[in-house]
């Protein structure tokens, strides 16, 4: 078995295939395509496809084809029966048929295949096999429709033919230990390495806050600076690690009053110990920028690319970075470090628009209020407003002009020596991928608000969401390589529409299965994980 790159004569596209050699009945050597992986138009796309091909070839050679996820009861029997479909015509009287159940199977088959392949089905040992099944069921439910655990149990019964008790879900969560959390992160890291076909050297790190539907603090839930503006509610801080392709590899949970810049002292040693990386280029936004943090990274021998707070620089440096609107400039910024400043017309227009729009809205509120000072909070654009007396508010033109000098400018600080300025900036710009992970976690998977109260269940809930995020990003990466980019929402929508109708013949008491029509998105997703899309009706 080998990988073949087929080049088109009159086109720049190159097809990547896994090919197998064999001999025909006359003992003549032949070749057949085992799997077509996709088409590349650039060298970068070709490299990624080759890495993916190596990953797929290794699975095939090890004969580890993922098994179908098997829901219980009717759903399990229906999926099992599909494996033995023959071509004989079904002779039934339609007047005798009644629909007994309609079961959604796309989520379980496609995401279940990814879940098993990544090793999440082996987090619990055999003595707790039922807990392992419950974790898989509840993860699939969160991907399909992220709601409370109680509602997930109801959805599993109603839509997927899976009957769980809420108590069994809570027992499963109580059995999730730090060791299981560590094993899950190892699975995510191994999957990322396998897909990328290389050692991971570039890691992105960011933090967010997750709030609770509660007003009571404990050792983990603490009030702190909330990115969701829920300052009167306790929260936890979640730090997430991702590759440059947006594949999650690990996370840490901190008390809610933890300043995110201080989380590095926990994260960096674990990165070095856990992932055994030969080289780490740590990339983060300006929240991680402080002299103490940079000194700490230097001391740990970690290379970094961190966003610079240009408006917080000394007056001398402010004058340097604002004296020109050149697209790219670089400055020596201390021992072995560079300050790289970029300018973008598009960003400049956005900065001005955002500032003007915020001030306009603030002025509208001030004009309607009898106490203007009460409306100007410590956040936002207070710095641009000057309040005289109780009702006279006007824009501070001098501060407005000072802020306008920075429109379109963005800076990063780095100690990486073997990358040119453009490469450093390009690497930093990929930080949006981890921000997308947070967006998916918060909106598509609804990781918050958190309705659990004990630290153990809070950690279990975050693990479930992390596993779901890893499966979602893993599938999105593969389908982008083979076919086209798809958002997680689009993937879930396509798979939620793949269903089986189980029909009962009231006269013969036989059951038949009628698969739903597969839409084009779902067909691509099934092909991505090498599952059949046979829609032929069959007998159970």
From TrEMBL:
- The record places domain Transposase IS4-like at 206-470
Q: Which domain of life is it from?
A: Bacteria
Per the record, the GO terms for biological process are: DNA transposition
Q: Name one GO molecular function term.
A: transposase activity
Q: Which InterPro entries match?
A: IS1634_transpos, RNaseH-like_sf, Transposase_11
Q: Name one Pfam family in it.
A: DDE_Tnp_1
**PANTHER family named in the record:** PTHR34614, TRANSPOSASE IS4-LIKE DOMAIN-CONTAINING PROTEIN
The protein's name: Transposase
């Amino acid at each position: 078995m080998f990988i073949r790159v087929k080049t088109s004569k009159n086109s720049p596209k190159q097809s990547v295939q896994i090919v197998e050699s064999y001999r025909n009945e006359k003992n003549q050597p032949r070749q057949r395509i085992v799997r077509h992986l996709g088409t590349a138009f650039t060298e970068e796309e070709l490299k990624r496809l080759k890495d993916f091909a190596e990953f797929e070839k290794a699975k095939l050679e090890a004969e580890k084809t993922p098994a179908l996820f098997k829901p219980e009861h009717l759903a399990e029997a229906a999926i099992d029966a599909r494996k033995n479909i023959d071509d004989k015509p079904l002779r039934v009287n339609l007047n005798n048929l009644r629909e007994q159940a309609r079961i959604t199977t796309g989520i379980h088959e496609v995401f279940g295949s990814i879940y098993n392949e990544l090793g999440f089905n082996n987090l619990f040992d055999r003595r707790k096999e039922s807990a392992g099944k419950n974790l898989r069921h509840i993860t699939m439910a969160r991907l399909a429709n992220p709601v409370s655990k109680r509602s997930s149990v109801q959805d599993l019964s109603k839509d997927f033919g899976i009957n769980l008790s809420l108590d069994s879900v809570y027992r499963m969560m109580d059995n999730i230990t730090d060791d299981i959390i560590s094993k899950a992160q190892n699975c995510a890291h191994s999957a990322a390495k396998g897909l990328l076909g290389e050692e991971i050297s570039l890691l992105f790190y960011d933090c967010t806050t997750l709030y609770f539907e509660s007003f009571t603090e404990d050792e983990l839930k603490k009030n702190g600076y909330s990115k969701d503006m829920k300052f009167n509610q306790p929260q936890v801080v979640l730090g997430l690690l991702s590759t440059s392709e947006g594949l999650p590899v690990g996370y840490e949970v901190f008390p809610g009053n933890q300043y995110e810049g201080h989380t590095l002292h926990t994260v960096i040693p674990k990165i070095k110990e856990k992932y055994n990386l030969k080289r780490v280029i740590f990339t983060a936004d300006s929240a991680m920028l402080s002299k103490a943090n940079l000194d700490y990274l230097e001391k740990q021998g970690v290379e970094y690319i961190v966003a610079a707070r240009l408006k917080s620089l000394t007056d001398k440096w402010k004058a340097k970075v604002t004296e020109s609107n050149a697209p790219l400039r670089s400055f020596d910024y201390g021992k072995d470090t560079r300050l790289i400043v970029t300018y973008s017309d598009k960003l400049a227009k956005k900065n001005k628009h955002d500032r003007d729009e915020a001030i306009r809205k603030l002025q509208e509120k001030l004009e309607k209020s009898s106490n203007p000072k009460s409306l100007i909070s410590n956040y936002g654009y207070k710095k641009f407003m000057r309040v005289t007396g109780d009702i006279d508010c006007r824009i501070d033109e001098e501060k407005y002009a000072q802020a306008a000098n920075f429109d379109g400018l963005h800076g990063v600080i780095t100690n990486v020596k073997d990358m040119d300025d453009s490469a450093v900036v390009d690497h930093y710009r990929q930080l949006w991928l981890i921000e997308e992970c947070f967006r998916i976690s918060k909106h598509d998977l609804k990781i918050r608000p958190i309705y659990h109260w004990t630290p153990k269940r809070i950690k279990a809930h975050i693990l479930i969401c992390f596993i779901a995020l890893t499966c979602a990003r893993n599938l999105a990466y593969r389908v982008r390589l083979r076919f086209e980019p798809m958002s997680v929402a689009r993937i879930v929508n396509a798979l939620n529409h793949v269903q089986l109708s189980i029909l009962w013949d009231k006269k013969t008491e036989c059951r038949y299965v009628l698969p739903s029509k597969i839409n084009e998105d779902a067909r691509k997703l099934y092909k991505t994980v090498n599952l059949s899309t046979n829609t032929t009706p069959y007998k159970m």
